[in-house]
Write a structure and sequence with these properties.
By secondary structure, the protein is of the alpha+beta class. The chain folds into three domains: 86 residues; 60 residues; 135 residues, 2-Layer Sandwich (Heat Shock Protein 90), CATH 3.30.565. The protein is 61% helix and 12% strand. It has a five-stranded mixed β-sheet with strand order 2-4-5-7-6. The protein has a two-stranded antiparallel sheet with strand order 1-3. Strand 4 and strand 5 form a beta hairpin.
Length: 350
């Protein structure tokens, strides 16, 4: 739908209204002219015994008055058009200044824009309301950011202490088999909780735009440097590379890029089988991670949601693909999933 400015809308509505009024009033104008102006002229001619000229008083009177009315309407319409065309430019300048500053506002910058002072009551109230709302958002963002950082730090410390204590207990030779099994289960849950805490913190930092340090990163070189650690994560599953564009470079945070690639590979491992295969391909401006699996197609409408699991037996905390989606959104990349010929495919378009 084509959008118009308020001034243009007012002008178009005014023109339609004026034309409609003139068309509706035309019969009334004709009646008044013929029954008052022209008729009076004919009576004066008859009373003064003036010979009938070769003129049609009625027609001439109608035409003359119509021309006068149309001229007045045109002059009035032109005046209104010029007023509506040029006067609103100055009147609406504070509004467009406010709109421009709002469109460039970022809550993570921590500053509220200063709006232009206006003597128009509505614009002044708008600026006051916006400034109050934006100030509240900035303050809420600062509180949330500080809480996230503090909570993560305070949680990570006792978790690390509990893990170290459990390590010491597991080395105790006097432990029974049952006690050792319980200790191992507790250690596993503590490790899982620690990883969950780190992942939630990572998501919070991405959404709060705290990764601002960007640099030029060659995607092919980054993948190849991660291969040794990715093969350890694969636990025997074969990883193959198909690099068709080794010149692709993106401007991004290197830590987030590593996290994106690692989470895609970890996801491919979890949905694979022992002698399966993972293919990491880079073609044009698209990175694709493909894996074999015994599972059928995943639900593409929910797989990027937090804590989503395709099955109750699935390992992990359900945050890996949510982190991938958050990183892509942060960098304005596109992430897609499709299932084809028994293979799960996740593609990131830079």
């Amino acid at each position: 739908m084509k959008q118009k400015t308020l001034a243009n809308l007012l002008m178009s509505r005014f023109t339609i209204f004026m034309v409609t009024i003139l068309l509706m009033a035309a019969p009334l104008f004709y009646f008044i002219i013929t029954h008052y102006y022209a008729e009076d002229l004919i009576r004066v001619q008859a009373m003064a015994h003036i010979p009938k000229p070769r003129l049609d008083f009625q027609l001439d009177t109608v035409v003359g008055l119509v021309i006068q009315i149309l001229s007045m309407v045109m002059i009035l319409g032109m005046s209104i058009f010029l007023i509506m065309r040029f006067v609103p430019v100055k009147l609406w300048r504070p509004f467009y200044d406010t709109l421009h500053k709002i469109s460039h506002f970022k809550v993570e910058d921590g500053s509220v824009p200063e709006f232009e002072t206006s003597n128009v009551k509505e614009f002044a109230e708008l600026n006051t309301t916006l400034k109050r709302i934006l100030s509240q958002n900035v303050q809420s963002y600062k509180v949330q950011k500080q809480f996230t950082e503090n909570a993560s730090h305070e949680l990570q410390t006792p978790l690390a202490i509990v893990q170290s204590k459990l390590d010491l207990l597991l080395q105790d030779k006097d432990l029974t088999q049952e006690q050792a099994t319980l200790m191992q289960d507790i250690y596993h849950e503590i490790s899982r909780m620690s990883k969950l805490n780190r992942n939630l913190l990572l998501l919070a930092k991405i959404e709060n735009a705290q990764y601002k340090l960007n640099e030029k990163v060659n995607i092919a070189e980054k993948i190849q440097s991660l291969i040794p650690s990715l093969e350890l994560l694969a636990d025997g599953i074969i990883i193959r590379l198909q690099i068709k564009n080794d010149k692709l470079t993106v401007d991004c945070n290197e830590v987030l890029l590593e996290s994106l690639i690692s989470n895609l590979v970890v996801n491919a491992v979890r949905h694979n089988y022992s002698d399966g295969e993972i293919v990491i391909s880079l073609e044009n401006s698209t990175l694709t991670v493909t894996n074999t699996s015994k599972e059928r197609s995943l639900d593409s409408t929910h797989i990027f949601e937090r804590f989503y699991r395709s099955s109750l037996t699935q390992k992990g905390n359900g945050l890996g693909l949510a982190i991938v989606k958050s990183i892509c959104d942060y960098n304005h990349w596109t992430i897609n999933y499709f299932y084809e010929k028994g293979l799960h495919n996740f593609s990131v378009r830079f």
